Amino acid sequence: MKKKLVAFIMAMAMCAGLVACGNNTADVQTPGTSQGGTEEAAEPVKEAVEEAAETLEGTEPGEDGTYKIAVMIPLSGDLAFFSSYFKPSLDYLVDNINKEGGINGHAVELLYKDDQGDPTIEASALAEVLDENVCAVIGPFMDACGPVVAQWAETNHIPVFMCCALATDVGFDNQSDYVFTAGASAWSWSKVYANAVKEKGYKSVYFVGNSGSVPDNVKDYFWREIETMGLDVKNAGEIRLSGSETDMTSVITGIMSSGADCVVSSLTGGPAITFLQQGNQMGLFDTCTLLGVYINDSDHTESVGDAYPVGKVYSITWFPISFDFAADSARDIYGRSDSVVPNSGGLTFYYALDTIAAALRTLSYEEGYDGDALLKAVEETKCESLFGEIYYTKYNHQLVFPLYLANTQMNEEYGMALPDQGDYKEYGLECYPTEEEWEAERQRLGK
């Protein structure tokens, strides 16, 4: 297994180019989307991590008989609202684990740390974790924090489970034996979109996305897949939108005049909501179908309300809460929140904890273990989770879990547009990059 972590100074210098969700209200995005960082953040982050770096030999479970796992999420600041999606899913799972006797008779405790989605604050929070005998770290969900967490994991030999959506260059730059990715992969989204275009017979595609490397990946890998499949699909054009777009009139008019019968989108956050609303009002979806991600999750559909183009939007989701097999878990998680409907972003954190617990069950608490033993156990363990078997690939430590491309319909229980159980397709391992593809891309990028 070829794994490496680039020099930390180089990684931090790339923070400006690493794609990360915006850290201000104008650029707020859903988990898994990306936007540019700032060069100013690089030096403080580097100094903070160097100050915090320590080496632990043979990390042990908590002395009080519990397994302690740190969770790095924004609990304050502009991005604090994301925790309302992540925390209920985690609390639901850890309570169930403990009610069933814990892990081999030992309870699990989650230690929530506030990183505010900021790399410098992430470094300080990680320094605290070293004094608390954690066996693993879950998070972050912000790509910009990836270099900090990866360096910390490599230094301290404690596995971390990042829940951000993975742009491929970010994945290579943060690759390490001690880093696992429980979040979704932009490359996987592209494969799902390309398969959908083939199956539905679309002949002309227009790309709409935010700026950043995740949208770059979605577009580039999508067209690469289309070419590999030998499909005769016209590239009708593309446009990138900032985090403050409010008037989509010219954008939508341009798409309609292009004659595209499909829009492939990596839009999230405010631009996605505005695009759905205005596109529906202008009749875009009368002749054009939208393929997107996250946009049939509660944080988007609830905002759009009756203006949501029901039946005209196919979106990738991994927690289809309106499906029968997901309904009970969704209701339980919903009951733990302050009326926040669960979504796919929260499920990545759930999956991270579930896979850690499955691996820990194969190890002995009493005999002790270290981070190396845990990472090997994670690599070898397949976990029976909410929607079937999930596991990490050995060649890039990406979690393989089901993705559902579903149409949308109004859901009476939650009062919003959600995935349509009567019109969906499930994708599995076939939508993830193979080891050969991953290695070829590593060489192409010179990583």
* Strand order across the largest sheet: 9-8-10-11-12-16-17
In terms of DSSP E residues, the strand content is 15-25%
How far apart the termini lie comes to: 14 Å
Largest sheet report: 7 strands, mixed
Mean pLDDT: 84
Describe the structure.
By secondary structure, the chain is α/β, with parallel strands linked by helices. The protein is 39% helix and 20% strand. It is built from 15 helices and 17 strands. The protein has helices at residues 8-13, 42-52, 83-99, 119-129, 146-156, 168-173, 186-200, 213-229, 249-258, 269-282, 298-304, 324-336, 344-360, 371-380, 435-445, and strands at residues 19-20, 35-36, 67-73, 108-114, 134-138, 160-162, 179-181, 204-210, 234-241, 262-265, 289-293, 313-317, 383-385, 388-392, 399-400, 403-411, 416-427. Strands 9-8-10-11-12-16-17 form a 7-stranded mixed sheet, with helices on both faces. Strands 4-3-5-6-7 form a 5-stranded parallel sheet. Helix 2 (42-52) runs parallel beside helix 4, helix 3 packs parallel to helix 13 (344-360) and helix 13 (344-360) crosses helix 14 (371-380). The radius of gyration is 21 Å and the shape is globular. Mean pLDDT is 84; it is low at 1-42 and 48-61.
Could you write a compact summary of the structure shown?
The protein is α/β, with parallel strands linked by helices and 447 residues long.
